[in-house]
Specification:
The complex is a heterotetramer, with 2 copies of chain A (about 80 residues) and 2 copies of chain B (about 140 residues). Helix content of chain A is about 25%, strand content about 25%. By secondary structure, chain A is of the alpha+beta class. Chain A has a single domain, classed as Ubiquitin-like (UB roll) (Roll). Chain A has a 5-stranded mixed beta sheet with strand order 2-1-5-3-4. In chain A, α2 packs antiparallel against α3. Chain B has about 140 residues and is α+β, with helices and mostly antiparallel strands. Chain B is globular and about 50 Å long. Classes of the chains: A alpha+beta (about 80), B alpha+beta (about 140). At the B-C interface, α1, β2 and α3 of B face α1, β2 and α3 of C.
C-alpha cells in the first residue's frame, strides 16, 4: 500500500527532501519500524533516523507514539519535538 | 466563534480583539508572542505542517471551548521568516467570566507549544540552528491534563 | 514602563498592545472588561475617587512588577456613563516569559476589582441600582496574598 | 483640626453632598467614631451611616479599616465596597 512520508525541520534537512511516496515494506508495522528501515538507507537518512528517541511522528495528521499502528495509514510525518508559539 | 489562521502576514491585534469583544461576553483575554532579540537572534524561520497545523489549532480551540464557557476563541500563528520584534502568535478568548477567559488563554498557548506542528529555526550572524523543545514547556502543557 | 490612566474616553487596545510589544519582551498578555447587556442593563455609570484612583492603580502596577519580571504594565479604566458593549477596563503586561505576563495580568484585574476606588451604577428601563461587591471577587483578590 | 470628608456612590447620594469640611469633633478618633457621629445627624446621614458594616473608608487616600487612627488625617472618604473592573 502506498504511503506518503513527510519530513520537517532538521529531519527534512538531513533527508534532503520534504516528502516521498513508498510502498510500505514487509515487516514494517509501526512508525518506529519505518524509522529504522529508513535509517538503514544510510547517508542523511541514517543521520536523521539513527536515534528514534529524538523523533516525533504524526499518522494521518494526528500526533501518535512511534509504536502506533501503521495499518491503513495514508500519510506519516517525521519531525523533531515541536517548538512553535 | 472560532477563528484559526496560519499565515506569513502579520495580524492586526486591535482588529482581532475587537472581533472577540463583539461576541457578547464581558471578558476578553489575549496573549501575543514576539520574536526576542536574545542571544544575537536576528530573525527566525517558522516551518509548519500545512493541513495538519490548522487541524491541530482547531482541535485546541475546541478543547478550550469544552473546558471553559467561551463565546470566542482566536488562534493565529505566523509562518516563514520573522525578524526580532515581529509577532509570532496571537491567542484570544472571550467569555462572560474573566477567570475563564484568562485560564483558557493560558491553556491555549501552553498546549500550542507542544501540540501544534511548528518548528523554529534561529538565524544569527554566526549561523542557524533549530530551536530545541524545552522540558518546562512540556511541563506547562501537561499541567492541564 | 508603567502606564496608568483613568479617563471617560475609550482606549485603542491595538495601540496599547503595540506599546507593550515594543518593550523588548517576548510575551504580552491583556485583559479587557466590557459592559455586558445582562439582565436588561442598558448602560452603567462608573464613579471613582479622583486622585486616589491613579495612586491605587499605580500601586497595583508596582506590586505586579515586584512579583513578576515585567518590562511593561498598562492599566486603563474608564469613568462616566458607558453603554452595553463598551470597554470598561484594560490591563496589559509585557515580559520575557509568558507565564509571568499571563499571571500578572490575572493578578492586576483580580486586585483592581477589590482595591481600586470605582463604583458601578447600573441603568435599566425599570430604574438604577448600585452594583454590590461580590464575595467571589474578594476571594479571587485574596488568593494572591 | 480641619478634616475633609468625601462621600462616594450611594453614601454620597444619601448624604446629598460629595464633600464637606468639618473640625474633628471631640471623642472622635477613628473612622467608625466619625461614622456614628455622622449618623447622629439624622436624615440622609442616618441612612448612610447607620450600618457601618456596609461601609469602607480611606484615610488620606489609603484604604484602611474603620478602626484606624484619625489623628493627623487631612482627608477621609466613606464609600461602599468597590465594584470597578
Amino acid at each position: 500500500m502506498a504511503l506518503d512520508i513527510l519530513y520537517f525541520a532538521w529531519v527534512r534537512e538531513r533527508v534532503g527532501v520534504g516528502a516521498e511516496r513508498i510502498d510500505l515494506p514487509d515487516g514494517v508495522s509501526t512508525p518506529l519500524d519505518l524509522a529504522l528501515w529508513l535509517a538503514a538507507r544510510g547517508g542523511g537518512y541514517a543521520e536523521a533516523f539513527s536515534d528514534p528517541s529524538r523523533l516525533r511522528c504524526a499518522v494521518d495528521q494526528d500526533i501518535v507514539p512511534l509504536t502506533a499502528d501503521l495499518a491503513n495509514a495514508a500519510e506519516i510525518a517525521f519531525f523533531p519535538p515541536v517548538t512553535g508559539g | 466563534m472560532i477563528s484559526v489562521r496560519v499565515q506569513p502576514e502579520d495580524f492586526d491585534v486591535g482588529a482581532e480583539l475587537a472581533a472577540l469583544e463583539g461576541q457578547g461576553g464581558g471578558a476578553v483575554a489575549s496573549f501575543t508572542g514576539i520574536v526576542r532579540a536574545d542571544d544575537g537572534v536576528e530573525a527566525m524561520t517558522l516551518e509548519h505542517y500545512p493541513g495538519m497545523t490548522e487541524k491541530a489549532l482547531t482541535a485546541l480551540a475546541d478543547q478550550a471551548k469544552g473546558r471553559w464557557p467561551l463565546c470566542g476563541v482566536t488562534v493565529l500563528h505566523r509562518v516563514g521568516t520573522l525578524k526580532a520584534g515581529d509577532r509570532i502568535v496571537f491567542v484570544g478568548t472571550a467569555s462572560d467570566h474573566r477567570a475563564a477567559a484568562l485560564e483558557a488563554c493560558t491553556f491555549l498557548i501552553d498546549r500550542l507549544k507542544t501540540d501544534a506542528p511548528f518548528w523554529k529555526k534561529e538565524h544569527r550572524s554566526e549561523g542557524d540552528n533549530w530551536v530545541e523543545a524545552r522540558a518546562r514547556d512540556d511541563a506547562a502543557a501537561r499541567s492541564w491534563d
